[in-house]
Amino acid sequence: MQWLRAAVLGATDGLVSVASLMMGIGAVKQDVRAMILTGFAGLVAGACSMGIGEFVSVYSQRDVEVAQMKRDNRTEMEALPNPIQAALASAVAFMLGAMMPLLSAAFVVDHKVRLGVVVATMSLALVVFGWVGAFLGRTPVVKSCFRIVVGGWMAMAITFGLTKWIGSTGL
Question: How far is CA 148 from its chain centroid?
């Protein structure tokens, strides 16, 4: 079940990270090519980062569990988390999440419409992710969806605002 948590986290992170990067570059550049290249770079870097981070995290957890089994003289190896499976799930899910804003913006010529499409796509996808998370965790759906959508909006707004401000100051 470790891989499922990694996949949900990876998809959400891919969606929010790449959409926020695209909104940030969209704050200072109207060029669709710049926005797509920034999003693609974020997809590749983020997928690598998520995969490596998940691998290291799960491998560390596995090492702790193996050490505890040795101390307890147990040999239940099948119950151990699989770091490769978690890393792959996280990296692939990140890429899938990141592809949503990339594909939504790729064919929109008008700059303002493109920004709106990215926000709308991310918002809808986050509602779906919030619903899935609530369903899997058996928690309240509205609260879960609200929390994830507002968090995504905050990430985009902060990235957009700070990039716009830095871009306007000439840095």
Answer: 11
